[in-house]
Amino acid sequence: MWTLVLNCGSSSVKVALLEPDTGAVAVTGLAERLGTAGAALRLDVSGERRVVDLGGGSYPAAFAALLAGLDELGLRAQVQAIGHRVVHGGEAFSVPATITPEVLDAIRACSALAPLHNPANVAGIEAAQQAFPALPQVAVFDTAFHQTMPEVAYRYAVPEAWYRQHGVRRYGFHGTSHAWVAQEAARMLGRPLTELNLVTAHLGNGCSVCAVQGGRSVDTSMGLTPLEGLVMGTRSGDVDPGLHDFIARQAGLSLDQVTAALNRESGLLGLSGLASDVRELEAAAGRGHAGARLALDVFVYRLAQAVAGMAVALGQVDALVFTGGIGENSVTVRAATLARLGVLGAGVDDDANARAVRGTPGVISAPGRLTTLVVNTDEERMIARETARALEAGA
Ligand code: AMP
């Protein structure tokens, strides 16, 4: 089923038209800087790029230009369904849902949990409904895959009323990616997913690990928000919960300012004082930049600790899976992480590790060591697959 996959952010829309069974991609695109003078939509079709100026417009202009682009390319009639990436489904959604007025209300109701993302997702869905009124639309949630976590993994040790009245619990994110790479890893290993205990490490701009038991998430490192857990590009990951109060008083910052700094000025960027991009940090560390070295070391140390933590959730680990821009490409981050995971029997095959870059997946562990794979994530394809499944199931 040819599916238009949409990822609507506050000022951008990421687009892909693809067929999930074959993986065929007809067009990809990005509308950026929506609502500003630089608003533009670019569409990439078989290596060719078209750019449309949106005249300062927002979602309606972006979708009108997308429709016109699909018409011009003769692709509009091909689109059979629309799949939306939605960040937070709270406890309301454990599977994708065909969008109805009730579903849209439920997504709105989750906005307090993701104030930056869910309102943008809702606005994108409404604009897409106007642009494509005849097509079925499905919401695929970042949090849904983790709804199988047991209570022992998702509860925080905070007053119970916070959970009951305000939904304060661990939800987890990147679910589409963790679910996809777990399926791919099982396929590559030639074993049924239902029999595997996997730790998946999604390492991109955002980073999280997940314990996947028989294809179901049983724990993950992100929590109430995508700030918990691993060190990320600009996000701190775990810090002392007392830090907000301490730094607000010491530096005279508001809660909003502390939250913004933990999201945008921390992580690899904060530690290194240089960059959030692992490529830049690896190059700088090679030149002797102490901050870059420290940032990478802390990143790897915390990652290895988190992987070991997921082993507790699983009892036994059959394989470790790396994915995301860093996981799929950084030979040194993978090697350093495995070097710290001797406790799990990990050990790298240096040649295999060096080969697994730029879209070349494979097993990178030495014989007899914890099976470790590099798998390419494909969130768009997974969203398209989930969209088809939801429509078939009448969900
Ligand atoms: P993603 O969010 O999955 O697109 O991942 C983006 C991140 O992947 C970038 O910020 C880089 O840190 C990292 N990355 C991409 N390519 C490479 C590479 N060749 N080597 C190391 N890190 C990379």
From TrEMBL:
Site description Transition state stabilizer, residues in chain: 174, 235
Localisation: Cytoplasm
Known catalytic reactions: acetate + ATP = acetyl phosphate + ADP
Similarity-based family: Belongs to the acetokinase family.
Keyword RNA-binding: no
Domain of life: Bacteria
Family matches, as InterPro entries: Ac/propionate_kinase (IPR004372), Aliphatic_acid_kin_short-chain (IPR000890), Aliphatic_acid_kinase_CS (IPR023865), ATPase_NBD (IPR043129)
Protein name: Acetate kinase
Protein task: Catalyzes the formation of acetyl phosphate from acetate and ATP. Can also catalyze the reverse reaction.
GO molecular function, one term: acetate kinase activity
KW Nucleotide-binding (keyword) present: yes
Pfam families referenced in this protein's UniProt entry, alphabetically: Acetate_kinase
Binding positions for substrate per the UniProt entry: 85
Pathway of action: Metabolic intermediate biosynthesis; acetyl-CoA biosynthesis; acetyl-CoA from acetate: step 1/2
Keywords in alphabetical order: ATP-binding, Cytoplasm, Kinase, Magnesium, Metal-binding, Nucleotide-binding, Transferase
EC number: 2.7.2.1
Binding residues for Mg(2+): 7, 379
Bilayer-spanning residue ranges: none
Binding partners and assembly: Homodimer.
Annotated residues for binding of ATP: 14, 202-206, 277-279, 325-329
Cofactor(s) the protein needs: Mg(2+); Mn(2+)
Principal location: cytoplasm
